[in-house]
Amino acid sequence: MTAKTFKGGVHPPERKDATKDLPVVRVLPSSRTVWIPVTQGGAPNAPIVKIGDVVARGQRIAESDAFMSAPVHASVSGTVKKIETHLVTGNVDALCVAIEDDGSGTTLFMDPLDPFTCTPETALERIRSAGLVGMGGAAFPTHVKLSPPKGMKIEYLIANGAECEPYLTIDERTMAEHAAKIVDGVAICMRITGATEGIIALEDNKAYLVPILEKAIAAQRAIPVGAGAFAISVVLCKTRYPQGGEKMLIKAVVNREVPSGGLPAAAGCVVQNVGTLKAISEAFREGKPLIDRGLTLSGGACAEPKNVEVPIGTLVGDLIPEVISLNPGVCKIVSGGPMMGIAMKSASFPVQKNTSGVLFLTSRETALVEESPCIGCGRCITICSCRLAPVLIARAIKADDLEEATRNGLMDCVECGTCAYVCPAHVKLVQHFRIGKHMVRTKATAKAAAEAKKQAAKAASEGAR
User: Fold this and answer.
1) Residue 329 — left, alpha, or beta (φ > 0 → left; ψ -120 to 50 → alpha)?
2) Which residue spans of the chain are classified as CATH 3.40.50.11540?
3) 1-30+110-368 architecture in CATH?
4) Fewer CB atoms < 10 Å away: N or C end of the chain?
């Protein structure tokens, strides 16, 4: 099987050996309390429970009427103790529902639903009701991703099993332990989107999974499902970061490019993380909402790295030291992988739907150096998988020229961090780009508000005549 790839990228040390062969173990927080953020992707939700309510595992606790929203459910059965702000990933405080587990294990799941006999509209509503979002990191509502704009035909449903971030192995273990659910999820998504071909893509450092996935595909073919759902195959990609990015994966697997400012649907593709696909299968077959999260706990300061599954809302600090013990010298705690993850100020933050891992790094694993002036070497241009010129974007942002930064591709940057990884001057390029994007969006929002105000004043003036 020939390994496919894309242009650009880097190959940082993988550091996956500590956990890649370890099964996922179910663990619970030592405090028996979870802090569940009411919004975990999509439009903001509002709590629909109050302090003192007794809730069941799987019961909806926060929601919104907005199409872009994904409801949130209780991950344990017990009593709502608090509804207040708490530290979450990103080092911000967000509204959370604190539930104390009563140990009863009472559940309130949905009824099972056959995804191949119900209408696509009903299937999409089930996915939304289950609170499914992208589990690869972006937390984009899954029902929205599976509802491409009118006029866009979906040909390929791509299961993203690349897991290119160093240290992280939870997707690898999910494929090894739940191949049948992933293949089922692919078939379900193919029926919903009308895709004629399903592709499970993984890097060649996980080639041993190919026969496991192919066995699951063969078993799926024996089930009478919708037309086209049998056309599922496995594709190997070269181990290279950021192979797991949607744009890079589409280029490598089907040799198509997502247009600037466009969605994968514009290239006839929908990409879903393998963890999301497993959750999709469970939402139909078991009626289970997205209430549990598998993740990798690793890093040089982690005495015994593990792959675990926890109730969503589990505080990372509540896993120490009962689940994981730390060696002296923790220099940085990262939510996610080392390339795109976010350094946290403490371990007192909850695991969310899109938390793929938490790393406890030593000083030898981090680059604690000050940024120095750019030397114009051009390395960032050579390795950029989006074919941008990071140095020019950064210069434009520093000069407060957002139009020039946008012209050079600021909004097309996927913030993978490869440019910062190779920069000899240690310029915090991704940080600059995030600030620049925020400024562009703020400016656009202000412009839209001003235009709306102008139109409202014009309408009022015409109405008074």
Assistant:
1) left
2) 1-30+110-368
3) 3-Layer(aba) Sandwich (3.40)
4) C
